[in-house]
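go over my protein:
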Amino acid sequence: MNMKHIKYNLFILTAVMTLIAGCTENLDLKPIAKDTEVTYYKDAASIDATVTAAYAQLCAREVFDKDYYLVIGSLPADDVEAGGETINDFPMAQHFDQFTHSIIDLTPTEEIWRYCYKGCRLANTAIEKMQLPDIADQDFINVRTGEMKFMLSFYHFILVQVFGGVPIADKYIQPEDFYTPRNSIKEVLDYCEATLTEAINLLPEKNSPAYNKFVGSEVGRAYKSTAQALLAKVLLYESSYAKNYPGDERFAGCQEKWAEALKNAEDVINSNSYSLVGANGERFSSWRTYPNENATIDGFRWLFTVDGDNSSESIFEIQSVNDGLGWGSTRGNTMTVFQTCRKYRKADGTLGDIGGWSFNCPTEHLVNAFKNSDPRETNLNSKPCSETDDPRFATSVGREGDSIQIYNKGIVWVPMDFENLPTKMIGRKFECSYEEYWQANQWTQGPFNVRLYRYSELLLFAAEAAFMANDKTKALNYLNMVRARARNCGTTGKPENLDNVSFEDIVHERRLELAGEPARYFDLVRWNLAEKYIGGTYNNGLAVNIEFVKGKHEFAPLPNSEVQLSKGTLVQYPAWE
C-alpha cells in the first residue's frame, strides 16, 4: 500500500470517528442482535452459567484424565509402565514414561496449561460479575464466590504440581496480563493457601441451610470441607518441599507447616462429611457379579465402579457422563478405554479385541510392594506376605487368569490376554460393564467419574503430617484406619494393624492404597525420592534405559509455545533451557 492510500484511509477513519463522537450521546451502544458481556451478565443465572463453565473445564476433552491423571501423574512413576499396543503407541505417553520428553511437542502439558488458565479466567470472571448491583442475595454471592476461589486454588495447585512455579492468575485477565513472568513455587502455594482460606470462610458446611439451598443434590460442587481437604494437601506439599529440597532455588521460601496441614486434615475428619467405603465389611451389588444377581462385591472394588461415583469417600471428582455428544463436546472420560485391556483369549486359543488400549501397566515393583518385599523399601513394620492377601490388589492389578466382561452373543466373561504388554499386567480401576460403556464404545464418553481426591488419601495425609509433627500415636491411628478398611474388604486378615509406624510405612501405604492413581509420581517428587525409585530398563519390544535426572525431571518444562508467545517473559528452569 502506498502513502497516498494510507492518507486516504486515515482521512476516512478520522471522519468516521468524528461522526461517532458527535452522536455518542444518542447512540445505544448495547447491540440488540446478540448477547455481549455487557448484556449477558445481568442476573444470578448468568453468573451460575459461568460458575458451571469453570467447573466444566475439568471434563473438557482429555485434559484432566488422560493428560494429568495418566500421562503426567501416573506413567513416570516406578509402579507402572506406559503400555499400549507397542513401544510406538501414543509416543508422548512413552516419552513421559521414559523421561525422553523435551520442550518440543508437549501436547499434554500444553493442554493442562491452557485449560487450567481457562478455568481460572472463568472463575475470576464469575467472581467479578458477582458485584453486579442486581445480585442481592448475599448467601448466593458467598457460596458461589467460595466455590470459584476453591477452583482457582485447585487449578493453580495442578499447575504447580506439573510445572513448578507458574504465573498467578488472580484477577480478571486483561490483554496486558498475557505476558506475565512465572511466580515462584512458594508464591503460588501462598496464593493457593490464602485463596483456600477465603473459600473456607465463604463456603457452607454440608447440610447447612446455605448448603441445602445452593449445593444440595448438585454433586461435584465444592463446600467447606472440600476446601479444607485441599488446603491440607497444599500445606503438606509446601512442607515436603521445604524439608526435602533445602538449598534448591526452585523451592526457596517454602516452610514446614506440618501442624497446619494436620489441623486442616483433622477439621475434615471431624466434620463427619466423609467415610471409608466398606470400612465395616459392607458388601454391594454390582455388574461384576453377573450373571449371579445375588452375589456382592467388597467396598474397595465397588468404589471403582460407576455405582461408586460420588460415594461417601469422594472429596472431589470429575463428573463424567456418557452423553453421546462425541469427541470434543462430550463430558465423558477417556480413562476407561485407555486403561482397559486390549485383547482376550478365545476358546480356540486365538485372540479377540476387547476395545481397550492397554495403558498404565503395573510393574513387578508394585507386585513386590503388595508383598511388602520391595527390596528398595526399608524400615517397614509390615511383614512379607502374598500379594493377593491384600484385597486392594485384585482391584489394582489384572494379570494372567483374570477375566473381563464382553459381548459375544450375549454378555460373557473371557480371559484377558497380555502378550503385547510390557509387564504382562493391566490396571483395573477404570473398568466398566458392557452396557455402561462398551455397547456404545465412544472412547471419549466413559461414564466413570475420575476420582481426584479420596478420603483415604486425606487420612494418609493426616498420618504423614502427624508423623512429621512428632505425634506418632495419631499417625498410627490414621494409617491403621486405611489398613482396616482394606482388611475388612477381604477374608485373609491382611493387611493387619501396625503396632508402630515409620515414615516408610506411610510412603508404602500410599503406594498400595493409591496404586495407578495420580499420586505416586508427585509423591516421589515432593519427598525427593524419585531418583531412588525411578530408573532401570523398560522393555516393550525394545529395551529402553529409563533415567530420572535430578534437578530437571521433578517438573515438566513450560509449554514451548507459551514461552515463545511470551517474548522472553516466561523462562524455563535452567535444566530445561
